[in-house]
Write a sequence for this structure.
């Protein structure tokens, strides 16, 4: 029987892992419920996570792009973009705050 994970929804545990990855990447508190709601609009990230898991660099890159698109309508900056990451994260946190999200204390990183 063929594995049909690309068609099925992720488990609560998988959404919790995605939430943990997104929180670590951004500093924005993302719950498993938030992750599920966000990924409704980004099926590619969901499919990649279902296929490869959260330890895959490409999956983490896709999740970073997903969260940037969700809050800022742009991709996550790459090294070639020469973006100011402090500025980018600040803009992302501000956009998240407007939507009611909070962020973790940076001293915990």
């Amino acid at each position: 029987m063929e594995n049909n994970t690309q068609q099925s929804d992720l488990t609560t545990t998988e959404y919790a892992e995605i939430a943990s990855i997104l929180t670590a990447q951004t500093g924005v508190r993302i719950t498993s419920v938030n992750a599920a709601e966000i990924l409704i609009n980004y099926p590619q990230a969901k499919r990649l996570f279902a296929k490869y898991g959260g330890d895959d660099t490409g999956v983490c890159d896709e999740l970073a792009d997903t969260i940037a698109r969700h809050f800022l309508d742009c991709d996550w900056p790459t090294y070639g973009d020469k973006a100011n990451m402090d500025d980018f994260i600040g803009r992302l946190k501000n956009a998240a705050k407007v939507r009611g999200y909070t962020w973790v204390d940076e001293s915990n990183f």
In short: Residues 12-100 form one domain. Residues 1-7 have pLDDT under 50 and may be disordered. Residues 60 and 103 are 19 Å apart (CA to CA). The chain has one domain: 12-100.
